[in-house]
Each structure stands twice: as C-alpha cells, then as structure tokens.
Amino acid sequence: MNILTELAQIGNRLDPKGAISFPIYHSSTFAHPGFGESTGFDYSRTNNPTRQVLEDAIARLEEGTKGFAFSSGMGAITTILTLFSHGDHIIVTEDLYGGTYRILEEVFNRFGLQVSFADTSNLEAIEKEILPHTKAIFTETPTNPMMKIADLHGIARLCQKHGLLDIVDNTFLTPYLQKPLLCGADIVVHSGTKYLGGHNDIISGLVVVKGEKLATRFGRLQNSLGATLGPQDSWLMIRGLKTLALRMKAQEENALQIAQWLLNHPKVTEVYYPGLKNHPSHATQLNQAKGFGAMLSFRVKDSSLIPRILKSLEIISYAESLGGVESLITYPATQTHADIPLEVRARLGIDDCLLRLSVGIEAAEDLIRDLESALR
Asked: Do 38 and 182 share a structural domain?
C-alpha cells in the first residue's frame, strides 16, 4: 500500500462503533471480563487502545516488528539506553542533538555506560572506535546541526560483522523519506514532537524495533520505566501523522529553494543541506532515502550579525524545536547544543556564526523575503 494511503487511514475501521477518528480512551484501568480473563487492556501504562493504534501505525510505517510510544523523545532514548549494562560501550554520532549528549555524559556515564563519539559519516572512523566490549552504534542521520549523512547500509554491515546493535535516530527524515530498518538497522527512534506530530503542539517519542526477541525485551523496559505516552497525546500524534506526507513534501520543496538562495547570498559563507548537489554525501543520501528533508544550517560571515538577524525575522520564529508547519530558526551554540563543551562545538563546526533552520509549509517566497530582510 502506498504510504500516503497508510498515513491517511491510521485508526480508521478499528473502532467497533465505526468512528472514523479512533476514540481517545481516557481510562487508567480496564475491567476484566471474568476471573483470569483480560480484554488485552488492563492498565494504561502497560497498554492503552489509543496508544496501541499509534504504536501499530509507526511499526507499519517503519516496517518493523513492534512500535512503542513515549512521553518524549528523551524518554524513548532513555529506554533504549537501558538495554545496556555497566561496562558496556557504545559508539555515538559526534554532532548529535545536545539532549542526547547530555544524558550520555551526565547520567548514563554514572552508571558505567562508556561512550565514544565518532564521525558516523566515515565508516573507517567508526570501525576504529570498536572495542571488545562495544555493544552498539547509535547514529543520527542527517546529523544535528551539521547535516552530515551516515551510510546506513555500511553501518549495518559493520554491526553485523561485530555483533553490535544498530540504532538510528530517524527524526529528521521520518519513514516517509527514509526507513533505516530496511537498510539493516535494529532500532529506529524518533522525537515524535517534530515531523511526526508536525504542529508544535505535542511532546512525544516513538521507537520501532526489528525482531520478536528484541520487541519482547524492549516492551518490558517500556512498561517498567513507565515513560509512556498518554491517550490524548497519542490521539494528537495519530492526527498529525495523517498529513505527514503532504507536509514533508511541501517542506522539502521549500528547503531546497531556500538552500539554493542562501548559497548565493554575500553574507552567507556556507550552507549545509544534503539536497544540494555540492553536499559531500548527496549520492549516499540518494542511495538510502527518497529525499533530503527540510532541515538546513548556514553560517554567516560575522557573529555580530546573529542578534540582528534573529530580532529582524517577522515570519520565521526564533524558537527551539523543529519539524512543525511553522518555520523556526535556532542558534545551536546557545540553544540545542549549549550542553556540549565549547572546544567540542568548535571542533564540530558549531560556532558562533551558525544558524539552524527548520523550514515550514509557508510560501517559499515569503520565507526568502523574510531572510533577505533580516540579513540586510
């Protein structure tokens, strides 16, 4: 079935009363039909009908075994990290979301989880970090905010060769554009807050795993840790997913136009967008995905321009997050990546001249006019 049809039909024909929009089951607990009997729903932390519709939908979309919905993207990542034990080692993308960096460096290192940060766009660099006690590779692609592309097929081969768990953060591209499990990954994670929800009105996280054994183990962790998504938010996620394809198509078209315009602006020194043919991993992205997404970063000539740009924008909002229908701009050095040490940010290129843009569904000409006025 075409993904457009799958998205539009999420929840339809599932309600016994015939509701087209699947109902919100606002109940913490469910009655048993009889002694030793269950409807399949006993307690909403463990399972809820509305959440199950969402979890089944994301599993189908990512073509995995089972889906899991969490109260935030960080709740999802935290649960993934509890798969590992004291003394285990994992390799993680070096220019990743600052929240992921923070939880690894400030929380899980206290429990003995060892982490190496690597350029996951370079297979040789990854393999050099593999140790006898390495258990997984955790990849963001495209990376945040430098928009580097990992070779998902190559990383999957590395994981198979060394017996490692292959985890991919697919937040930026969504299953509409990229399906890491089909490239060989074992686990896919999303901040559902972003493109999957799509309207900047919900916080959520989603995970899809491959294989019944891993699904059973992960399900026990989800239930034990309890960071599950509530029924109201599950319903909002279902509603958001129904328009994912339409939104992503419009946002990607806008992003390419803006990236091309920024390339020629005299006050912009670099543009990072994998949809540009001069991007070093343009061909790799074409080999593993249907598109390039709607996230881009760009560098201006002088950091003194940053405050004026951010104050002058009238359509694009200076705000955290990404992936909604409204265009947002962030300053990674003080927002999303503030928890990463200055010397690390400098090495990765996350300097005082870098801006990250989440392109929305507004008219491209209006967004370009807004940027042009602010840069002037």
From this structure: yes
Q: Which range marks the domain in which residue 272 is found?
A: 245-375
- For residue 71, the model assigns a pLDDT of 98
Give the CA distances from residue 98 to residues 145, 335, 345, in Å, rounded to whole numbers and listed in that order. 10, 9, 10
| Active site members | 45, 97, 169, 194
Kindly state the tokens that stand for 303: 């950091």
Cα separations in angstroms, 14 against 8, 64, 79: 14, 20, 29
Cβ atoms of 138 and 90 closer than 8 Å:
yes
Tell whether 70 and 178 lie within a shared domain: yes
Name the region of 247 (left: φ>0; alpha: ψ -120 to 50; beta: rest): alpha
With beta carbons less than 8 A apart as the criterion, state whether 274 and 292 touch.
yes
Confidence at residue 93, expressed as pLDDT on a 0 to 100 scale: 96
Give buried/exposed letters for 152-178 (b at 16+ CB in 10 A, else e).
Answer: bebbbebbeeeebbbbbbbbbbbbbbb
- Which pLDDT score is estimated for 302? 94
| Spans in the chain with pLDDT lower than 50 | none
> What is the predicted pLDDT for the residue at 96?
87
User: What's the pLDDT at 345?
Assistant: 78
Give the DSSP H/E element, type plus range, for residue 80: helix 73-81
pTM score, two decimals? 0.96
How far is 328 from 243, CA to CA, in rounded Å? 19
The answer to whether residues 46 and 149 belong to one domain is yes
pLDDT at residue number 337: 72
Q: Which tokens is 341 given?
A: 């040490």
Same domain, yes or no, for 189 and 75? yes
